[in-house]
Specification:
16 helices, 76% helix, mainly alpha, 368 residues
Length: 368
């Protein structure tokens, strides 16, 4: 089947929720909220609200309803997988539930694809004598096939994340990558589906440890040629890759390029706060490198400003910054205080005093 921009445009109309109007927009908002929840119970509460709204869409066709139900199930499974990575107590249970839901979704898409594939083939046989009505049916069926392929690729990706064996994980990630490749083979362009599939391919490469491939796939993505919601995720992924590669200079460059488009008083979402935390940690490491020379003061000044912005988002953001700095091996005023207390308890008063002084110097350099 030949992929062209006309059919992708039809895919966008369906995938973006324009078919369902305001109700689908509310469902999309709820799915975004579900992804931010910190417990399985909270996720389920939001998902139930989305399912209730979906059932109320009496104007939606059976196909549109099925796509919507499957996206809700996929989002729920994605949330379970994310929580399972953070928790140990119910990890196996949540991964099992996610896996079962995604297999159900995959089975639905397989059957749906066969139906539409057969219909497209039948219509193509009579393409030269196709009536206007049949031509519209052909366009709808082809667009549905594209949407099925798009959704199937993301479902394979999510299955890869919750698979219980490395072999299954790699198999699903490779199938997801091949699915996304159908949309990205024509090159990068500012289109919601194509940019999202470049991001999907990059996610697959990241999970398989092909970090250079991630950077190559996202190499053409800029704020000027990528939808904002996707560009945020791409930049965050770039920072994760740079972190995995131990490249603090890349983190500084990627984050700097992203945040230069934002004013200092712009409100940040959760992903952007995490990006800024990665940036602050990279600056702290760069500033502590004796080889950095005259750039050290510049990095420390920028770090102080970043800390102020991050800490303005409350104790949770401040705690995440302290934790991440500790993971980077960077001493902070808080970590110095903890260590100083331990030295005091051990009656190592000189060591205690040195750590207190170190913490005070860092506190002063941070601008607090």
């Amino acid at each position: 089947m030949r992929l062209n921009m006309y059919f992708i445009s039809l895919l966008v109309l369906s995938h973006s929720g324009l078919v369902g109007g305001a109700t689908s927009s509310r469902i999309a908002t709820l799915l975004g909220q579900a992804a931010q929840q910190s417990s399985q119970a909270a996720v389920d509460t939001v998902i139930t609200q989305a399912e209730t709204l979906a059932r109320q869409q009496s104007h939606a066709s059976p196909l549109e309803q099925l796509f919507l139900e499957n996206r809700i199930k996929r989002t729920q499974a994605m949330c379970y997988t994310r929580l399972a990575r953070q928790e140990t107590g119910r990890r196996i249970d949540m991964l099992g539930q996610a896996h079962a839901s995604l297999l159900l979704v995959m089975d639905r898409y397989a059957k749906l694809r066969k139906q539409h594939e057969d219909r497209v083939e039948a219509l193509e046989e009579a393409f030269n004598v196709m009536s206007p009505a049949k031509e519209k049916e052909y366009q709808r069926a082809t667009a549905a096939l594209l949407e099925i392929d798009y959704e199937t690729a993301w479902t394979h990706y999510e299955l890869g994340l919750c698979s219980n064996s490395q072999g299954q994980k790699l198999d699903h990630l490779k199938q997801a990558n091949n699915g996304f490749l159908n949309f990205t083979a024509g090159g990068y362009r500012n289109h919601p589906v194509i940019t999202d599939c470049f991001y999907g391919q990059a996610r697959c490469s990241y999970e398989m440890g092909y970090y250079s491939d991630v950077l190559n796939l996202l190499g053409e993505a800029k704020a000027s040629n990528t939808p904002p919601a996707i560009y945020i995720k791409m930049t965050h992924l770039r920072l994760l890759v740079a972190t995995a590669m131990g490249s603090h200079s890349r983190i500084h460059r990627f984050a700097g390029d992203y945040f230069k488009e934002k004013t200092d008083d712009a409100k940040l979402d959760a992903l952007e706060i995490d990006m800024m935390i990665h940036w602050a940690c990279a600056l702290a490491k760069l500033a502590s490198d004796p080889r950095i020379g005259r750039y050290g003061d510049e990095y420390r000044t920028r770090l102080g400003k970043l800390r102020t912005r991050i800490e303005a988002y409350g104790d949770s953001a401040k705690g995440k910054l302290e934790q991440k700095l500790s993971e980077y091996g960077v001493e902070t005023p808080t970590s110095c205080l903890v260590k100083a207390n331990a030295r005091f308890q051990a009656q190592d008063y000189q060591g205690c005093l040195e750590l207190v002084e170190q913490g005070l110097r860092q506190d002063a350099s941070s601008g607090d």
